[in-house]
């Protein structure tokens, strides 16, 4: 029996949550340390990715509200459905796929 | 309301918004996900260039103008003799040139105003009401014949008797009908009907 490659096994216990109730100006989205984010915009904000997976793929969920303008990280706009509406709660589900040519898939919805 | 001059860069960055506009043309963005001519999502050329911004309309006017979105200002003009030309950009706004109307256009405008003034509305209502009265009268006479309360010959005689007097109602000339009815003389049955008609038409005029 061959030994399993533990580097490629995703161990799921619970999703890690980052909360920030005063998001404004700039904000890093930490893909390496969180899966779920809860943000409240208090001003226009420019988001950036950090800790993107170097291989495979990952899905994150961002719950966000606040009637201000978010600017998404580079590449998020290529495959996107929905539009952010800061007057209500929004759910942004973003998948990053590190294939030959890495790409994102972003879905924005207002679940309430 | 805002407008923006279409450029190649804008078309490439925002195909959703500019696909129906040629380069150099003035775009007035409208529809879902817009407000006051501003898109609710946009890839700005000057604000976080190359990235998508949602709630773009919430950004400052300075950013909108840096991207090329400027207010559309409609100049005041005399609609009787002037009209607006094609939208163009003028320093810090989009606006329209004022063009003098041709004589034909001025005449058409005057006629349109007259068609819509109070007098036209008044006579339009008169005409409509007069046609209703005439239809009711005709239906009343035919109903009596159908119900065998009068003969068909009597019905036709009655219609003929009142025809000239009631015909002005088609034009809304209630007063003329009243005068013509008053001048009619016929048998007792027709006179009763005549007086009933005069009373109804006079009531209409009194309550007008």
In percent terms, what proportion of residues of chain B is strand?
5-15%
Order of helices and strands of chain A: EEEEEEE
Biggest chain-to-chain interface with counts: A-B, 18 and 15 residues
Tell me the span between the first and last alpha carbons of chain B. 44 Å
Protein traits:
heterodimer; A: 112 residues; mainly beta; 7-stranded mixed beta sheet; B: 208 residues; alpha+beta; 2 domains; 8 helices; elongated
What does this entry show, briefly?
The complex is a heterodimer of chains A (112) and B (208). Chain A is mainly beta and 112 residues long. Chain A contains no helices and seven strands.
Written description of the protein model:
The complex is a heterodimer of chains A (112) and B (208). Chain A is mainly β and 112 residues long. Chain A has strands at residues 17-30, 36-50, 56-65, 70-71, 80-81, 90-98, 103-109. Chain A has one domain (15-109). In chain B, strand 9 (88-90) and strand 10 (93-95) form a beta hairpin. Chain B is elongated. The mean pLDDT of chain B is 94. Chains A and B meet through strand 4 of A and strand 6 of B.
Strand and helix map with partners:
The complex is a heterodimer of chains A (112) and B (208).
Chain A: E1 17-30, E2 36-50, E3 56-65, E4 70-71, E5 80-81, E6 90-98, E7 103-109
Parallel strand pairs in A: 1-2, 2-3, 2-4, 5-7
Antiparallel strand pairs in A: 3-6, 6-7
Chain B: E1 2-5, H1 8-13, H2 15-18, E2 26-27, E3 34-35, E4 38-39, E5 41-42, E6 53-54, H3 61-67, E7 70-73, E8 82-84, E9 88-90, E10 93-95, E11 98-100, H4 103-116, H5 118-146, H6 152-166, H7 174-183, H8 188-206
Parallel strand pairs in B: 7-10
Antiparallel strand pairs in B: 1-2, 1-7, 3-4, 5-6, 8-11, 9-10
Helix pairs in contact in B: 5-6, 6-7, 7-8
């Amino acid at each position: 029996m061959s030994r399993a490659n533990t580097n490629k096994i995703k161990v799921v216990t619970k999703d890690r949550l980052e909360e920030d109730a005063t998001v404004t100006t700039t904000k890093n989205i930490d893909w390496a340390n969180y899966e779920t984010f809860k943000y409240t915009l208090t001003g226009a904000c420019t988001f950036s990715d950090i800790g993107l997976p170097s291989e495979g793929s990952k899905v994150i969920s961002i719950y966000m509200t606040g009637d201000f303008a978010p600017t998404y990280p580079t590449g998020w706009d290529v495959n996107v459905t929905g539009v952010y509406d800061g007057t209500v709660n929004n759910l942004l589900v973003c998948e990053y796929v590190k294939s030959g040519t890495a790409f994102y898939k972003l879905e924005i919805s207002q679940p309430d | 309301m805002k407008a923006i001059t279409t450029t190649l860069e804008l078309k490439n960055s925002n195909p959703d918004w500019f696909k129906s506009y040629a380069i150099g043309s003035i775009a007035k963005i409208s529809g879902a996900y817009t407000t006051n001519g501003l898109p609710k999502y946009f890839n700005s050329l000057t604000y976080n260039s190359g990235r998508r911004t949602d709630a773009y309309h919430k950004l400052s006017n300075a950013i909108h103008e840096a991207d090329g979105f400027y207010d559309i200002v409609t100049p005041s003009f005399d609609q009787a003799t002037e009209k607006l030309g094609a939208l163009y950009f003028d320093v810090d706004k989009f606006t329209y040139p004022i063009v003098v109307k041709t004589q034909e256009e001025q005449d058409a405008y005057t006629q349109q105003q007259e068609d819509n003034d109070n007098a036209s509305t008044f006579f339009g209502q008169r005409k409509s009401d007069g046609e209703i009265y005439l239809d009711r009268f005709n239906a009343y006479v035919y109903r009596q014949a159908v119900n065998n309360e009068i003969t068909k010959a009597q019905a036709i005689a009655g219609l003929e008797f009142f025809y000239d007097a009631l015909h002005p109602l088609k034009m809304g000339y209630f007063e003329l009908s009243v005068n013509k009815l008053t001048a009619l003389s016929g048998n007792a049955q027709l006179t009763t009907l005549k007086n009933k008609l005069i009373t109804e038409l006079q009531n209409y005029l009194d309550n007008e």
